[in-house]
Each structure stands twice: as structure tokens, then as C-alpha cells.
User: Fold this.
Amino acid sequence: MTYEQPALPYAENALEPVISAETIRYHYGKHEKAYIDNLNRLIKGTEFENSELEDIIEKADGPLFNNASQAWNHIFYFFTFSPDGSREPGGELRKAIERDFGSFEKFKDAFVEAGAGLFGSGWVWLSRDDEGKLLITQGRNAGNPLTDGLTPLLTFDVWEHAYYIDYKNMRADYLRRLWDIVDWDVVESRY
Ligand code: MN
Assistant:
């Protein structure tokens, strides 16, 4: 089978000024596309030819893992945002955030700190474990919490290609601005 790059659920300029149309054109149009193109090339003739993306992430390694996981991570990342979504979590997720981090504000600070503090390229994640406890983790390079048995809820991309056009070297500024476009209805639906 062939993986297709899902179309974004918003226009390429819809997340401005937080994420510019130029960044979307490169990050979604070239980086995400390249991971999916590479994935399709690499699965040919392997045991993963008809696998779900999650199965490849859990079982493969090397370039196949890297491209499968980067494809999954980018789709997950771009579908977290909306120009007009709920800007704060509600319901059970809100209660879990307050229980495990003290408050929504403290959660946001800890998440940005984990993303800003990751050395090199990678991702910062909010996930839940089997008991519903929330965890913030750093993933190096193509890392994905699925390989640790966790359920991912939210991720911010901290590869330089995610922010360099709009924020240059100011990674923490980029991370803080992303709160203005997270659609918490989407995150809650994953919880
Ligand atoms: Mn990226």
C-alpha cells in the first residue's frame, strides 16, 4: 500500500502569525512530504508493506522507523492546531492536568521547559499511561511515546526546521506562541 499525505484541515496562512504560510510550505509541503515519500520507498518489498503506521513505529528500526515515526509525528502535530479551536482543555483532561501538574499554567510552563531543554532535534510530548496518568517526555530525533507503551496526546516539534523561518534561534518563544493555536478539543478527543 501507499501512504498518502493528509491534506491540512486549514489554509496554509490560517495559523499566522504563530506559524507563517512560508513555514507551512516548507515544513508540511517539503519536510512532512519527504518523510512520507521516503516511507513509501522504504517499505517496498519488506514485511511492513501492508502494515499500519503504528506497527512500523513499534517494530521497525533504522531509516524505516525514522521515516515512519516522522510521518506519524508530523501528521499528529499539524492536526493539533486550528485557527479557531478551544484554547484551554476542559472535561476529564483538564482535571487530569490539574491533578498531575498542579494547574494548566504549570503544565504549560513544564511542557515549554522540556521542549526548550531538549538538546538537538526532537519532540516534546504529553502522553497518558495505562492508568490515565499524564506524563511530559522528550523524544530525540524521530522518537515517539508509542514505543514506550504510552498514548500520545500532544506534541510540539522542536526540530529547527519547525521554527527557524519565523523565530530564528528563539525556540522557547516559538513553543510559548504555539499555545495560541492548539485546539484542545482535538487533544481531549485523544485522551
Ligand atoms: Mn518537523
Observations:
- The helical segments are 21-43, 53-59, 62-78, 91-101, 104-116, 164-167, 171-178, 184-190.
